[in-house]
UniProtKB/TrEMBL annotation:
Record-linked InterPro entries: ATPase_P-typ_cyto_dom_N (IPR023299), Cation_Transport_ATPase_IB (IPR051014), HAD-like_sf (IPR036412), HAD_sf (IPR023214), Heavy-metal-associated_CS (IPR017969), HMA_dom (IPR006121), HMA_dom_sf (IPR036163), P_typ_ATPase (IPR001757)
GO cellular component: plasma membrane
Top-level division of the source organism's lineage: Bacteria
Transmembrane annotation, as ranges: 426-445
Protein name from the UniProt record: Cd(2+)-exporting ATPase
Family listed: Belongs to the cation transport ATPase (P-type) (TC 3.A.3) family. Type IB subfamily.
Domain HMA: 1-69, 78-146
NCBIfam families per the UniProt record, alphabetical: ATPase_P-type
Keyword annotations: ATP-binding, Cadmium, Cell membrane, Hydrolase, Membrane, Metal-binding, Nucleotide-binding, Phosphoprotein, Transmembrane, Transmembrane helix
EC number: 7.2.2.21
Intracellular or extracellular location(s): Cell membrane
Length: 471
């Protein structure tokens, strides 16, 4: 079960590492990750550890940082209804209800045998992948039962102005090409009466505090000044999106998980691209589809990385499955994992770390605030400096000052050349000094030989090191 604790006031990297290690060593705890930027501790634990976990976490945190306020972040509950077609066994129903209810992250589980349904209340992160687990449990008791998720119907709001056009086919096809390398499509919903400009305005207002590439794309498209004095209650919900109060209206902007967690009835967009859903005052406003363009030198960079000895290239992305597969195929990546939250990226990185060959290193390249925990966890964290967030740059070991992926190949080439020169200088220095040490012991070396053995070696080493300037 995943639990998130807010550590308000935590600002010590050294203490964070100790807290993460000590909590991770508690009985029943599978993983522990501290996000210093967001001041959170994410713990994955067995159900047996739940009862005393909060108290143990607070004790460990206060042993290192007594002034830090520790509280548990409650995840919004989502209702999922599953159709169990063919279920007619009361005994099996009771077992299914009990086993599903005991799953981590599940608040309640109720089987209605008459309607052949299973209603589950669970956290958003658990609910997203619950169908497969429910199917397995049901089939362990009733193999012939058909399990499917029931789509909850939304009621359309009353239109106040029948003349207000939503989006016609021409609007849906129109694209706006941005300087930051993205294409944005505005998509409407037949249930609403919002104009395209208003969808974009709400999105721009919500993203005005962010320096994420998607935020910059939306703000560049909006192209108007934004008065942030009108806003309050800004909250960045990790892995979901943003919530902000705009002139008394609560504006939500983010992915489908945010809409589900806030119980917003929305029209899912099936087009390939990053979906950015917008809602205001509990009503769905529209969706902005952002299709990232692959940087021109990305494919070449991946090919060059393999040439210089990189064994495996893997993409970890929060985008949907279709985007992930499309980009991975285009770039020739060995594997990809899509629809990942920040903590899930860390889990995948740890999985890859266990699979790596002994003696090899695992590097991660990222630029967003959600990449910071992964950059810190990798053997070598590399941040893209041009569009990279401050959190990503701070967590990284290496920062590329432009957003050209090909610079990564150059960085590795320079690093290898630097290591070769360092080793050469060590061998030269030790070799020459050893020779003159022996000659001096035998009485065959005078003052000038000693000077050469000291100053001469320094000059040779400096001249040799200057070769790196040609790189």
């Amino acid at each position: 079960m995943k639990r998130v604790f807010i550590l308000k006031g935590l600002d010590c990297p050294n203490c964070s590492a100790k807290i993460e290690k000590e909590v991770g060593a508690l009985p029943g705890v599978e993983s522990s990750v501290v996000n210093l930027m967001q001041q959170t501790l994410t713990v994955q634990s067995e159900k047996s550890a739940d009862a005393t976990l909060a108290e143990q976490v607070e004790t460990i945190v206060h042993s290192h940082e007594p002034d830090v306020e520790v509280s548990e972040k409650t995840e919004p509950a989502v209702t999922k209804v599953y159709l169990l077609k063919g279920l007619d066994c009361p005994n099996c129903s009771a077992k299914i209800e009990k086993e599903v209810g005991e799953l981590g992250g599940v608040a309640s589980s109720t089987v209605n045998l008459m309607n052949q349904t299973l209603t589950v209340q669970a956290g958003t992160s658990v609910a997203a992948s619950l169908l497969d687990t429910v199917t397995t449990i049901v089939h362990s008791h009733e193999p012939d039962v058909e399990v499917s998720e029931k789509q909850l119907e939304a009621t359309a709001p009353v239109k106040k102005d029948e003349k207000a056009a939503v989006y016609n086919d021409e609007d849906k096809k129109r694209t706006i090409r941005l300087a930051v390398g993205a294409v944005v499509y505005a998509i409407g919903m037949a249930l609403t009466v919002y104009q395209k400009e208003q969808v974009l305005e709400y999105a721009a207002q919500a993203e005005s505090y962010s320096n994420h590439p998607i935020a910059k794309s939306i703000l560049a498209t909006y192209g108007k000044p934004i008065d942030q004095k009108q806003f309050s209650g800004f909250e960045e919900i990790s892995g979901h999106g943003i919530s902000v109060m705009v002139q008394g209206k609560k504006v939500l902007a983010g992915n489908s998980k945010l809409m589900e967690s806030e119980k917003i009835a929305y029209a899912a967009c099936d087009a390939a691209g990053t979906k950015f859903y917008v809602a205001a005052d509990g009503s769905y406003v529209g969706c902005i589809l952002i299709a990232d363009e692959v940087k021109p030198d990305s494919k070449c960079a991946i090919a060059e990385l393999k040439k210089i000895g990189v064994e495996k290239t893997v993409m970890l992305t929060g985008d949907d499955e279709r985007i992930g597969k499309s980009v991975a195929d285009e770039l020739g990546l060995d594997a990809y994992y899509a629809q990942l939250l920040p903590d899930q990226k860390v889990e995948k990185l740890e999985m890859l770390d266990k699979q790596k060959r002994q003696g090899s290193k695992l590097a991660f390249v990222g630029d967003g605030i959600n990449d910071a925990p992964v950059l810190a966890r990798a053997d070598v964290g590399i941040a893209m400096g041009g569009l990279g967030s401050d959190a990503a740059i701070e967590a990284a070991d290496v920062v590329l000052m432009t957003d050209e992926p090909s610079k990564l190949v150059e960085a590795i080439d320079v690093a290898k050349a630097t290591k070769r020169i360092v080793m050469q200088n060590i061998v030269i220095a030790l070799g020459i000094k050893s020779v003159f040490l022996v000659l001096g012991a035998l009485g065959m070396a005078g003052m000038w030989e000693a000077v050469f053995g000291d100053v001469g070696v320094t000059i040779i080493a400096v001249l040799n090191a200057m070769r790196i300037l040609k790189k």
